[in-house]
Amino acid sequence: MSEAKNTIYGNTDDCIERVLVSAEQIDEITTRIAAEIDATYKDSENRLLLLCILKGSVVFMGDLMKKIKTPVEIDFMKVSSYHSGTVSSGKVNIMLDIHRKDLSELDIVIVEDIIDSGRTLSYLVNYLKLNGAASVRCCTLLDKPERRDSELKDFKADFVGCVIPDEFVIGYGLDYDEQFRALPYVGILKPSVYEK
Ligand code: IMP
Ligand code: MG
Fold first, then answer.
1. 40-61 b/e with 16+ CB inside 10 Å = b?
2. What are the tens digits of pLDDT across the range 179-192?
3. % helix / strand / coil in the chain, to the nearest 5?
4. Of the candidates 5, 9, 4, 44, the residue with the CA atom closest to the CA atom of residue 190
């Protein structure tokens, strides 16, 4: 673990069970995925758009985009599938839409922090295709396949950083109740923090 910060839950180190993906591992992941994205789009005639899903993906997206050699544009959407805490609400709401008229000229890579039930990403893929995107692929830092909704069992991202067990994780953009996003690694949150 590293810099202990204070959150509304107290000292960060006391809230974290263990580091799951270190800053060094994240750096290797972003390097690998950037190369995969470059290889995938090398012959495309469309422009490449990285679509960051706020807020959790902002740190990952910032690091990833710097390592992609293909010229990229960026945009943002904000969706919510969580009410609060660690339990999914089950439906996806668009809080900030992508307002562009050029979707048919764009290869879109949706950049997510984590896939859990799969509802957010599967909804967004359909939404962007329905709105005419030239192509849509998904990139996620973390994947928790054990948590996938039964009807989305086959849903997979095209670019995956790391498959993780069914644990609630925070850091590197991911939050619990808006806390812990600025940590440079991904850690497992102690259940005692959210069971309080
Ligand atoms: P899904 O729609 O159930 O796949 O949920 C995806 C969203 O839930 C992610 O973009 C996160 O914002 C949030 N989420 C899921 N699991 C975790 C976690 O372990 N920590 C923090 N946020 C999570
Ligand atoms: Mg998210």
1. bbeeeeebbbbbbbbebbbbbb
2. 999 999 999 999 99
3. 30, 40, 30
4. 9
For 118, residues 6+ apart whose C-beta sits below 8 A from its C-beta are 148, 149, 152, 155
Residues 50-99: pLDDT tens digits? 999 999 999 999 999 999 999 999 999 999 876 555 666 567 899 999 98
Angle between helices 23-41 and 58-67 (to 10 degrees): 60
CA gyration radius, the chain: 17
Residue 177 annotated to the active site: no
Q: Which of 113, 116, 149, 177 is catalytic?
A: 116
Q: How many whole angstroms from 45 Cα to the centroid of ligand 1?
A: 33
